[in-house]
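Course assignment 3, question 2. Fill in each field.
Student: A.L.
Task: Predict the tertiary structure for the chain below.
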Amino acid sequence: PITSSLLVFPRLGNPYLAQSSYSILSDLLSSAVQDSSSGIRDQLSYILDAVLSSSPAKTDAALAPVWAAVLGNCMLALHATDSEKGAKDVSKAWKAVWPLLESQDTEIRKAGAQALKQVGQCFTPSLIRIALSEDASQEKKSVIGKIISQTTKAFDALSFARSIPELLLVVSSLVENLRYRGGSRTAPTAAEQLLLPLVTRVGDLRVQKTFEYKEAADDTLSTAMRILGPEILLRALPLNLEPADR
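Answer field:
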């Protein structure tokens, strides 16, 4: 019953009340995933709509991080309750959080990347299959296809120049959340089929002398190694051990 009251406070224009209510709401949503007796599950769609309709400015260091946490936790709770219903909100949630990665504030960008990771955990087999069915040479229209295209383009955008560590976290989470294999256990993962060009791009950035975020890139490539397997990754990113390769 307290959730309806908590959602009123952010609309009152008091930053302290808004921040506190979002923090409490985020905790309630986190516990709702484990506690099936929580009545909050019946209100998840209402909560999500309310949170999406009150997004803070990407410059709001007080509200943006806690708002992102509420949105991410709400999506996870919705996914745990009804994964297909939650999948329908993936696109809206991703679009709402994405601008936070352009913020000049590091904490806002980190909170945004974490929320995007949570939204990515709501990918369902049906969403993934739609993305896999798209023609590789044509413009992407699926939810996941658009997400991958947006992330790829961000590496070349000046507005994301300071956001490379967060973009690398997003790539890692995409690889994790696309480990789906259609058919047999020997079938290629969706990550291999959809993300290999982006992973290759990260590998290319990693070896540039002026690249500043090599540790973050290593973490992303480590995730790719674990999900894709060494054979796939090393085929795309050869170690150049042979003299002729060097």
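Instructor remarks: Residues 15-34 form the longest helix (20 residues). The two ends are 65 Å apart (CA to CA).
Grade: pending
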